[in-house]
Amino acid sequence: MKLDILAFGAHPDDVEMSCGATLAKEISKGKKAGIIDLTRGELGTRGSAELRDEEAAAAAKILGISARENLDLGDGFFSNDKASQMELIKMIRKYRPEIVFCNAIRDRHIDHGKGSALASDACFLSGLRKIETSLDGELQEAWRPKQVLHYIQWEEITPDVVVDISGFMDIKMEAIRAYKSQFYDPNSKEPITHTATKNMLESLQYRHQNLGRLIGTDFGEGFTTEGLVAIDSVFDLI
Which of 9, 8, 21, 43 is nearest to 164 (CA)? Predict the structure, then answer.
């Protein structure tokens, strides 16, 4: 299956929290999108890997994702090494996306920066035909996405591109709330974490409102780019 967009996340819920509305918007236009989770989030303070699997599947259904896979590279301990790069290259060549979204270039959680570099490196290496990979017994062809965008997570990073997501915040928040184990629940006996505070979802919504304010819309999701962004017309900027 060829996808238009492939989003990588170090943990299940990274993608939904950071670029879920952008995915939902493009899917509403007929684009096909997929998510690759690098780990199962098994070291997370709340919930379990099995529960996160169920939550990720529910969130994908809400967003209308065409494909979702988990590479189970090891929460907290995966590395940007050849073995991990080869696993991501297989996914890039399998789905042949035009655009890749990946983790923030730096962030509070160590997996986010690692995941960012890993996905970026894999996107480049995937285009080298002398790197041979096979999937299900078939040799894969080289493929390099045309654009790699890094979404913004915990840390406030100034975006290079802001996508107008007005009209898609509700579906984004619904997908995020599918991760019930990770967010505030007054009846839960599990420890309170950064994402499980009372105001976490409100602060997330405020960030998107503020980015929307800065571009003159209701809501926005921000991305940083690795290179220049080409436009066909200056009117693409408005």
Answer: 21
pTM, two decimals, is 0.95
Cβ–Cβ under 8 Å, residues 95 and 6: yes
- Total Cβ atoms within 10 A of residue 203: 9
Question: In the CATH scheme, what architecture does the domain 5-237 have?
Answer: 3-Layer(aba) Sandwich (3.40)
Domain ranges within the chain, ordered by starting residue: 5-237
The whole-angstrom distance between residue 46's C-alpha and the CA centroid of its chain comes to 20
Contacts of 22 (CB under 8 A, 6+ apart): 101, 163, 165, 168, 221
Extract the tokens encoding 205.
């919504």
Q: DSSP 3-state assignment of 15? A: helix
> pLDDT digits over 156-169, tens only?
999 999 999 999 99
The residue count of the chain comes to: 238
The angle formed by the CA atoms of residues 97, 173 and 161, to the nearest 5 degrees, is 50
pLDDT tens for 81-90 read: 999 999 999 9
